[in-house]
Amino acid sequence: MKYFLLALCLSFCAQAQEAAPWTQFSVQAHGEYQYGYRDTSGRVRIPAKFGGLTNARTFRHIMAVSESKSNQDYYLLKNGRTVGHDSVFVFDYQYDCESEGKIRFKDVRRNRVGFFDQLGRVVIPALYNYVTPFHNGLAVALIGARQMCGSGFDTLRCEHPSWAGGRTVLLNARNEVLAELPTHPRAGHVNWYSLKINDPTPDTATTVTLEAVNGNRYTFTDYKKEFTQWLYNVFIPAVHRDEAAQVRALCFTDLAVSARPFGGWPHFTPATFVARYQHAVLSPRLGTLRRGAPGVAIFADDLNTLIFEGRDFYPFLTDCGEHFREKYPIFTLVLTYPAQPANAPVDHQEHFEFIRTAGGYRLFSMSL
């Protein structure tokens, strides 16, 4: 009996190791990095043999890889099986990473994009000019458009392609069109994780509602609306009231500041940041800021992982190590100060960056 239990335990542990994500490690050889993967016990499951565009820091079920020696690229599963040798999706010189059990592939001949599932099976055929990864079971796709590169059309070798015409649609995981969208598939500030169907009393100040093809109404939080409301109703009033404890609570655990003359990006804790900058910068710049004030703008931004590389920022990254903007957006408040006289070039700008965390928006960067 004890031998049976021991065998059962070993089998269960082995299955757990296969199910748990593997983590990338790197080895430098001849001036280049090669990547392999370890399991949760630290055992090397794949030796360091990948290079090129291989960017999956976490290997869950399926990933795109490029072998250093053979220069072959394909999709690799944990059991060693490979698929898609002629259809690896590349956009802006980057491979895709698995998201919600799916990964994008490209039919190069037809210049169309679809999805493999975590077992390497085609679950959504390559029908789309472009499609986003899935978030909360939803993806945004462009279909029937013409690809442009500069002034030409249907060019296959573009680093930053764009499209003309076509339809932008919202898809579910069964490849069903749920709604027609008015915007480009990579545009907008929609929180896909906030979906409410037929909400009887949506807050129009912070949400956007789509009319579905089946007659339902899909309501989502609009990140930019949400941030703007938080900025003027929560953050700025706390700065104005000089509530140091509240301002500290509205700061991220790791803040970076750049000032003129440029001396790098020193990092601060919330306590040291507020002690140094509350009266010197925050109160005079933001304490009396009002909506619609001249020289004030809000832009969506991406996380600079070269500056913000500490462990506190890991939760805000995808499995590819990129900013997970669909769940943790960043908004930059920009204050522009025109030079004198009025027709002179702009003197300078000041930037205040905020990131959406599990606890709400937090200030994490300031550039003066």
- What portion of residues belong to β-strands? 35-45%
SSE class:
alpha+beta
- What would you call the shape? globular
Q: Level of helix content?
A: 10-25%
* Alpha carbon gap, first and last residue: 70 Å
Query: What radius of gyration results from the CA coordinates?
Result: 24 Å
Outline the biggest β-sheet.
6 strands, mixed
Oligomer: single chain
How many distinct beta strands? 28
Count of folded domains = 2
Spatial ordering of strands, largest sheet: 24-23-28-27-26-25
Low-confidence stretches: 3-17
Average residue-wise pLDDT: 90
Number of H/I helices = 4
Secondary-structure topology with pairs:
Layout: H1 2-19, E1 22-29, E2 32-38, E3 44-50, E4 58-59, E5 62-66, E6 73-77, E7 82-83, E8 90-91, E9 94-95, E10 102-107, E11 112-117, E12 122-128, E13 130-131, E14 138-143, E15 146-149, E16 152-153, E17 162-164, E18 167-172, E19 177-181, E20 190-197, E21 207-211, E22 217-222, H2 223-240, H3 244-249, E23 251-258, E24 267-268, H4 270-286, E25 296-301, E26 330-338, E27 346-357, E28 360-367
Parallel strand pairs: 23-28
Antiparallel strand pairs: 1-2, 1-4, 2-3, 5-6, 6-7, 8-9, 10-11, 11-12, 13-14, 14-18, 15-16, 15-17, 18-19, 20-22, 21-22, 23-24, 25-26, 26-27, 27-28
